[in-house]
Amino acid sequence: MIRNIGDENLxxxxxxxxxxxxxxxxxxKTVGTIPLLRADSVETIQVPFTLGFGKPxxxxxxxxxxxxxxxxxxxxxxxxxxxxxxxxxxxxxxxxLNKVASGLRSPTVLANADDQxxxxxxxxxTGKILILKNGTLLQTPFLDxxxxxxxxxxxxxxxxxxxxxxxxxYKSNGRFFVYYSAPSSDVNLNCxxxxxxxxxxxxxxxxxxxASEKILLRIGEPEMNxxxxxxxFGPDGxxxxxxxxxxxxxxxxxxxxxxxxxxxLLGKILRIDxxxxxxYGIPSDNPFVGQDGLDEIYAYGFRNPFRFSFxxxxxxxxxxxxxxxxxxxLDVVINGGNYGWRIMxxxxxxxxxxxxxxxxxxxxxEYPIFEYSxxxxxxIIGGYVYRGSESPVAVGSYVFGDWSTGFLKPGxxxxxxxxxxxxxxxxxEFNLNKGKALNRFILGFGEDESGEIxxxxxxxxxxxxxxxxVWQITMQE
Length: 477
Hints:
The protein is mostly beta strands and 477 residues long. It is built from two helices and 37 strands.
């Protein structure tokens, strides 16, 4: 498919597909013309009969009469008349995936306690937190929240256990925090998003005290989707919380939606002090302290900030915000920033009239450092800037993924971004060491105590099957 992602119509678009390498007997070069391609529209091009063998590269070149040119090259496996596109971009880093755990039900979060135990804590969407210890998945859960949560659909759901993080002083105080979907007492709401604190048991470091729950925050949710849920402590020692816009489509909540409404917590990044106050304190430099807006808000204008992380070295906060119909975005978030939803979807107007209603200048918004269209994927899954030691070639690269290219067949893609000296980010798809597509839904990423990155995947869209897996990612040229 060829898509015009610009705002102007294009004419006399010449396209060319060339196979190079391998043994291509027929169909080595195909050309054609599209008379008109309107703004934000797609044209499917037909490739004639191809015959050959081997692993050629396929280069697609598109040129419009207005002078716009685009080129894309993919590796492929050609067997007779069958062509299979291989993952990865030419010259990209190769990722080797080593499976370290399997048999999980929709693993959504992976964290470490930074207590020199080298344990990995894996949260299943269904409510259990499991421990991977010395390469073995312990049978007894660290914590089971199943009875506290709403009953989630086993086929597809965006509710459940979505967040887990450990206090920076966990080794001495045993405190950790979870974010999950609980039943609401309000019949007009779908559920409540709950932020709760727990402590580890005094008898066994591999088991939490289930009676220690202290609910810090409860947020009413009108719909079942866009729950956010990421938890992370920043370099400032405060707890950051990602909250979705409340669900549905287009943030149709009230007149202005939740993302731009500073009197609600939905559609925000929150920042609180869990070491002071009852049930928590507010950092004094939160942007709306003493002003119009809730004190907990750190940044706003988000649709579904499902995953975010801090760069260990630069301390920048990277947030992947899942898009609506057309665009996925990655933001570097600053104190008090407005990230545009629902006025904007990525860099593109979604409801620009709302900016006029709120007297907001579009120039005052914070725009993504990177975006991609739904021709590439459907839901960005935020990852981490790599700062480990096992893969020197990837140090400083932001490793992330996309949930899947489709909803029925698992087609997750593994990517990385690199930043040039001008602050511009470039996306590359990892080559996979076995040259085969991932064929999984990507659900999340996590880090161990050494800064090595792990990926959470599943064969199924929900938890009906124990098809969840954890993979360690190592990267080389």
